[in-house]
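Q: Is it fine to ask for two folds in a single conversation?
A: Yes, each is treated on its own. Send the first.
Q: Here.
A: Result:
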Amino acid sequence: MKAVVWHGVGDIRLDDVPEPEIQDRYDAIVRLTTSAICGTDIHFVRGTMPGMKEGRILGHEAVGVVEEVGPGVRNLRAGDRVVVPSTVACGTCSYCRAGYYAQCDNANPGGPQAGTVFFGGPEAAGGLDGLQAEYARVPFAHVGPVPLPDTVDDGQAILLSDIYPTAWFGARLAEVGDGDTVAIVGAGPVGQAAVACARLQGAGRIIVVDGIPDRLELARRQHAETVDFNTEDPVEAVRELTGGIGVDRVIDAVGVDAQRPARGPAAEALRDRAEQFDHERDEAAPERNPDGDTWVAGDAPTLAARWSVQMAAKAGTVGTVGVYPPQVQHYPFGEAFMKNLTLKTGNCNHRRYVPRLVSLVGSGALDPTPLVTRWSGAADAIDAYGAFDRREAGWTKVALGLDDRGAVAPGMGEEAGTGAATTAGTGHGEASTEGG
C-alpha cells in the first residue's frame, strides 16, 4: 500500500509498504478514506520532536471503514465507518476510566510511566505506524474508533480525530466559562478550532493572535477579534483591548515551533532576546535539515508561552495544547507565579471528547468544514507537506483524500447544518458542556 514515511529529519517520502495485519485480539484493520497533515507531523520533519524511527508511517488523524476486527472487538464490525482518535488507550485502567486517556497505563510498551501513545510518533510515544496510508492497524479498537452517522461527512469527521478534540481540551484546560474574555495564541488549525470550542463553552470575547494574514482572516470570519504580531506588539494590543487588564483565559495553540515577529514593534522589542532564542532553538532541535525555506525549525520556541503569560490577567488561567517536547527546558514561571496564574497543559484525552463532538456535528450545532482549506490526493502528499510547512497562504489545514470507497464526500452530509454556533454564538443552549 502507499504511505507517507519518515526517513529522517527533512526527509519524508511516499513509499510502498506492507499492508498491516491483526496482531492482537483487540486490533482492527481500518481502510482509511481520509487523513490529514498536522503541525505535530511537521515537528518530526523539522527536528523539533526527536526519537523517530526510520521507516515510520506518519499521521495521526483519520476517517475510514472497518475491514476486519480481532475477536476481542465486540462493538465494531466490518463496514462500519469510523473516526480514529489520535491517541491510543486501553479503556480499562484507572486513568482511562477517569477520562485521562492520554495517560493510559497499558497502551505504551514502555510501561505506565512512559506517557502518551499516538499514531505515527516517536518510539517513546509507542512506536506505532501512523494513519497517512491506505490501511492502518488500530490497537484497542474496542475503545478508540468512534462510529459515524452518514450525516457527518469526511470533511467534518477528519477534524474530529485530533484538531477539534485538542481545541476543546485546550478550552477546558484554560477553564473557559460564561462571559470570559479569551486569547488564543496561534491561528493554525487548533487555534481556529479553539474559536468555536471556546464560544461553545461560554466565552464572551475571543481574541486571536497570529502573524499570517490569511489565518487571521479565517479567524475574523468566525467573528473573533484579531491581532497581527507583525504589525503591533501583541501583548500591548491585548491589554489595550481589555482596558489594560489582560484576558481571563489564554489558550496556547502554538508550542515549540513558534516564530519571532518578522517586523513591527514586537520584532524590535525582541531584538535583545535573539541570542537566548537561538540557544532555545538549538536545544529544542539539535538536529535540523532544512531545504531552503522548508523544514525550518521555529526560531523562538518559548515565545508563545511568554506571550500567553503576559497577556493573562492576574489570577487568570493559561491552557497549553501547543506541543512542547521534553527537551524544551524554559518557561516564564516567575512571571506566572507573581500573577497568581493557573497553568494547565498536556496531551489531549481525545476519546473523552470525540463522541460528543460527533454528536454536535451530526445535530448541526457545530460545522468544522470551513477549517479544511486544502484537499490533496495521496500522490501529492509530499508537496502538500511542504506547502503546509511553509505556512503558504490558504494552507491552514490540509486533508488527504486516500480512498473514496465508503467515504461520505465533503458537503454531502444531508443534515449537517450550517454551524451557526461556530460563528454567531447561537445554539449555545443545545451545546451544553456539562460532563465534558
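Q: Second one now.
A: Result:
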Amino acid sequence: MDEIDRLSEFLQRLTPLSRSCLLSELERLELCGIDMPGSPEIQSRLRAEFRKDGSTQARATSPSRYFFAPLELFLIDGAPEHPNMGRISRNTLTPIWEWICRDLLPTMARDYIKAINDQVAANNPKEVLKIASTFQTKVVKVLESTFASAESTEFARGKLAQYTASRTAFDDVRKMQHVLRAGNVLTKFNEKLPEKIAKFDDGRVAQITAQLDAFGKANAEALPFALALVARRLATPWQLSRLATKAAASKSAADIAATPYACVVHMVLDRLDDKRLALRIALRHNRVLVARDLLAEIYDTEYSLKVRIDGIEGHEWGIRLQQLMDAIAALVSAEVARFPSNVGHILGSRRLRSHDTLGGKLTYLAWKGRDAVQEGAAAFRKLIGQT
C-alpha cells in the first residue's frame, strides 16, 4: 500500500498533460514488446482519469483535437517504429502536443487553448475552426524556421525526446508539417477518389495515376499522403504496388524502382510490418483467429510482391521483405511450439498460404506465362520498329 500511495502522490505532482503523455508512452512501450515494472498499475490509474471508457488508444483533448484534425485520415493506431510513409502514429500526438505547448510556442499555445475553450463553451464551431486554422499556420511557419538549420533541428529533436523515446516521433512532426501546409488540397484530392476501389485494374490504375500526377506537380511533399488516401480505398494493401509495376518497362526490380511511384513498394512493406506488430499482439492475448486472418493477409502480400517483381530477392525491398517474414516465422514457430507435435495448430495450416495450393501454383504459372507473352510481344514490336 505504501508503494501505491507513493505512486499516486508522484502522479499527482505531474501536470495533467504530463500524465496523459506518460500514459501514451507506457502504452507505446507495451505495444513495442517492452515490459515496464509497475506499468499495468500506472496505466490503469491514468486510464481511469483520462479515458472514462477504458480505451487503450489515446484520444486528444478538445484544443489538441481541433489542431490535429487535418491529420485524422493519416493516423494509425499502435506504435510502429518504422517510418510508415504517408501515415502518422496516433500515439505520438500527445508528446508532440506537449512539445508544442511547452517548447515550440508556449505563449501562443496557451492563448490558443483559452480561445478554443471559450468558443467551444459558446457553441461557436465556425470560430473554433478559424482559431485552429490560424494556430496551425503559425506552427507550420515556426517549424519551417526550426528546420532551416541543422543546429535548430537537432535542438528541437532533443526537446521532443524529453517527452517520448519513440524513434519515429520527430519524423511525425515533419509529416504533420507537410499535411498542415497542404491544407485543403489533400481534402479535395480525397473527395475526388472513389469511395471504394474493388478492382485495381489497368484502367483504374491509369486513372488514379493521372490524378496523382496532377496532385504531385504542386504538392510534391504531400504526395505520400495522397498515396495513403488511395491505399485506404483498396481491397488489399499490396494492390498499391501496381502504381509502380504497371508503369515499369518490365517486371525487374530495377525497372520498377525507376518509376515515379516506386515508393509505394516501401509503403506496402510498411503495412506488412504493421501486420507483424498486430500479429505479435494477437498472439500475446491468445486471439488465435485474429492471428490466423492476419497471417493469411501477410502471406498474400509476400506472394504478390514476389510474383510481380522479378529479382526482388536481391533488391533492398526483398531484403526487408525477408527480414519481416523471418520475424513473422519466428512468432508463428513460437506459438505452434506451445502445443504437442501431434496436435495440429491453425497457424501451421498450409491453407493460409493459398498460393501453395494446386490452384495457387496454377495461377502463378498463368501469371508467368502471360508475362512471357507480353515481354515477347514488346520485344517483337521493338524489333519491327528498328527495321
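Q: Anything structural to flag on that second result?
A: Two points. The CA atoms of residues 28 and 161 lie 14 Å apart. The longest strand covers residues 75-76.
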